[in-house]
Specification:
The protein is an alpha+beta fold. The protein has one helix spanning about 5-20, and strands at about 25-30, 35, 40-45, 55-60, 65-70, 75-80, 85-95, 105-110. The protein is elongated. This is Sialoadhesin. Pfam families: Ig_3.
């Protein structure tokens, strides 16, 4: 293999690698960003790139690991019983080969009293 072909292959591999690790997840909140105490909230970590890839999801609240902090499904649900459930939620996807996505932008959830 000549040097030009090798350099071209190396450049293509680094572009592919960069594309896989630069997936940017988006957190979606259901029913809304503002809920009342006692409502069930569902957070979805949506990674558009690599939809056919098996992801494991890590969840964060206010930049700290959130329980359940690792899931194999893109959704977590919880009952917002406390005002302290308010905060900024984000996620990261990790593939089976240990490649990680970027961290999502945080979404703000506000839990209101009655």
């Amino acid at each position: 293999m000549n040097v030009s072909v090798f350099l071209l292959l190396l450049a293509l591999l680094s572009l592919i690698h960069a594309g896989l690790t630069q997936a940017k997840p988006v957190v979606k909140v259901t029913p809304d960003h503002r809920v009342f105490r006692g409502e069930t909230v569902t957070l979805t970590c949506d990674i558009q790139e690599g939809r056919n890839i098996q992801w494991t999801y890590s969840w964060f609240k206010n930049r700290y690991n959130y329980y359940p902090y690792r899931t194999t499904t893109a959704e977590i649900s919880f009952r917002a019983d406390y005002l302290s459930d308010s905060g900024e939620y984000s996620c990261i996807g990790e593939r089976s080969d240990s490649q990680r996505s970027d961290i999502s932008a945080a979404v703000t959830l506000t839990v209101s009293g009655e």
